[in-house]
Amino acid sequence: MAEKKKISYGHEFTKGLLKENPVLRLVLGTCPTLATSTSVVNGVGMGIAATIVLVCSNICISALRKVIPSKARIPAYIVIIASFVTMVQMLVKAFVPALDQSLGVFLPLIVVNCIILGRAEAFAGKNPVLASAVDGLGMGIGFTAALFCMGTVREILGAGTFLSGIQTMIGSFVDLGSFNGFDFTPILEKLHLAPMTLFILPAGGFFVFGVLMACVNKIAEGKGLKKADQLGCAGCPYAAACGKTEAACANETEKEAAAQ
Predict the structure, then answer these.
(1) Is 212 among the domain residues?
(2) How far is it, in rounded angstroms, from Cα 68 to Cα 125?
(3) pLDDT by residue (tens digit) across 13-36?
């Protein structure tokens, strides 16, 4: 029945940018967001890698949705996602080794990223291939945009640079000459100031994350969208199991109340 419903590809693409931004609205993928957003290059690199995995896994899972048994869908999803993560990691190691070193363990940990598994369960496993690809692309761009915003604030305030290390990402593909980002530290020294290193530490990451979440939710509510705490847990891969658990608990409570 869901496949007969008319799908708006524009809506599926744009919802991940603001309405259901996976990081700033649904609060998914928080760990890699905080860990890799210390600089713009690392954040965007993680976002692009996750987007590629998200789009490819959504396409594959959607194409196999009628073949994968319902009871084995989560293990099957993880195997599919892990396969694409392995491919992406090998490509990054081969073509952008410096970025692979910078991201470290967080690149292979894309396998357990809540955003990817959540979209597989909530959307790709129930919708056609093209719609799933568009959904994955929109969510991936939303994730990358959140990492870019956080990386920009944290890098400028915490290190006094912007796009530092960009040679490690695209220097092999685009001739950037001697450009390797902007360095504002000489200007700060003339003003007898120094970068606030707190912003590239975990505490600064949480602070920037909270401020961006507040701003994005304020903008979303101003556009008439639901508050973040009213979006529910539809994006969580275990939402169905939670619903069954809640229903079972409710039944037990009703039985206990009736017995008393």
Answers:
(1) yes
(2) 9
(3) 999 888 889 999 999 989 999 999
Q: Look at the chain and report how many structural domains it folds into.
A: 1
Is residue 65 domain-resident? yes
Q: Which residues pair with 183 in a beta bridge?
A: 161
The answer for residues whose C-beta is within 8 angstroms of residue 130's C-beta and 6 or more apart is 9
User: Which DSSP helix (H) or strand (E) runs through 159?
Assistant: helix 129-159
Q: Model-level pTM?
A: 0.84
- 196 three-class SS: coil
Is the residue at 260 inside a domain?
A: no
Output the six-digit token pair for 173: 């593909």
Residue 1 lies in a domain: no
First to last CA, the chain: 43
Q: Which two structure tokens, joined as six digits, stand for 145?
A: 């945009």
d(CA 15, CA 31): 22
